[in-house]
């Protein structure tokens, strides 16, 4: 039917379609239908964090845990830029046998970072040896390549490889790395100019069936809604049933009360917090006085 937009059937049953109000009302009255709700547009949510929290952090690819490469993190976001140093795939063997996904990154995208790879294995299921072992796109952009930077940022925060001598315009130079730098990444690109709820649910459907261990998603609403109308809560619920943890951003609001958009009890909701570092600059006045401020300025 031309009204059908998407069908969810790999991990749970459902569909997205163009319906009239009357059709939606009739469907919602059926005993075999859990919920019917409009597909809404969602928004993207926005370095030393892991050290600050006391997590073990390697400083090179030579001291990574042997089994770490078996962890697969599914990133539902705006895609990924695979050539970035944070996704360097040196030292990686074939993807884990549990992986059932594909590299369908679309236009101008490959999952194998050949410019970095020291290994050229092809696993028995046909996937190239790489850190980014899977890619799918849903947003209509025709590619899983990240044109906004948000998806690459969130993916590197979760699983970025060790990058030495990283800095912010020369400031705070050191080692950049994700929370689990030895983990594999599967990217699910659902955001172009907007992020459709129907596409997000399709990404959950695929990520669960593909065999990821963790799903991270930094997309959502500006405020909480009923759980049976919350696409991410629904997708996360089905992931939890399969033993897959869903990590979801709390939202872009705050610090006022009731501004957390992620409230489902089966989601791990993550918000911004304090940290033990700051960017300082010295402001020199014409009279010679010098003030230190917690901002970063560039000379003009």
Automatic annotation (TrEMBL):
CDD domains linked: Peptidases_S8_3 (cd04852)
Instruction: Report domain Inhibitor I9 positions.
Output: 2-45
Keyword annotations of the record: Hydrolase, Protease, Serine protease, Signal
Q: Its Gene Ontology molecular function terms?
A: serine-type endopeptidase activity
Location in the cell: Secreted
Q: Which residues form a coiled coil?
A: none
PROSITE patterns for this protein: SUBTILASE
Matching entries from InterPro entries are given as:
Peptidase_S8/S53_dom, Peptidase_S8/S53_dom_sf, Peptidase_S8_subtilisin-rel, Peptidases_S8_3, S8pro/Inhibitor_I9, S8pro/Inhibitor_I9_sf, SBT
Instruction: Show which residues constitute the signal peptide.
Output: none
Which positions fall inside the Peptidase S8/S53 domain? 69-274
Report the record's Gene Ontology biological process terms.
proteolysis
GO cellular component terms given for this protein: extracellular region
| Family the UniProt entry places it in | Belongs to the peptidase S8 family.
Put simply, this protein is called Uncharacterized protein
Gene source species: Linum tenue
């Amino acid at each position: 039917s031309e009204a059908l937009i998407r069908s969810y059937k790999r991990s749970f049953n459902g569909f997205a379609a163009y319906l009239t109000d009357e059709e939606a009302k009739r469907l919602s009255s059926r005993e075999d239908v859990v919920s019917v709700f409009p597909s809404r547009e969602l928004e993207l949510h926005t370095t030393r964090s892991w050290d600050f929290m006391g997590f073990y952090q390697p400083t090179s690819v030579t001291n990574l845990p042997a089994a770490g490469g078996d962890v697969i993190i599914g990133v539902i976001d705006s895609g990924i830029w695979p050539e970035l140093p944070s996704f360097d795939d040196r030292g990686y063997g074939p993807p884990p046998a549990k992986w059932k996904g594909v590299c369908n990154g679309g236009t101008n995208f490959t999952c194998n970072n050949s410019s970095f790879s020291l290994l050229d294995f092809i696993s028995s299921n046909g996937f190239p040896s790489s850190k980014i072992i899977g890619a799918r796109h849903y947003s209509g952009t025709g590619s899983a390549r990240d044109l906004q930077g948000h998806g690459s940022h969130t993916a590197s925060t979760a699983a970025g490889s060790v990058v030495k001598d990283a800095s912010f315009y020369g400031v705070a130079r050191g080692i950049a790395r994700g929370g689990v730098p030895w983990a594999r990444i599967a990217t699910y690109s659902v955001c172009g100019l907007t992020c459709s709820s129907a596409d997000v649910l399709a990404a959950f459907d695929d990520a669960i069936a593909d065999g990821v261990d963790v799903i991270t998603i930094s997309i959502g609403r500006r405020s909480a809604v009923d759980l049976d109308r919350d696409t991410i809560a629904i997708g996360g619920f089905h992931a939890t049933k399969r033993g897959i943890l869903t990590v979801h951003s709390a939202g872009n609001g705050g610090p006022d009360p009731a501004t957390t958009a992620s409230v489902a009890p089966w989601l791990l909701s993550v918000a911004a917090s304090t940290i033990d570092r700051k960017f300082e600059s010295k402001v020199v006045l014409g009279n010679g006085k010098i003030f230190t401020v917690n901002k970063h300025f560039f000379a003009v």
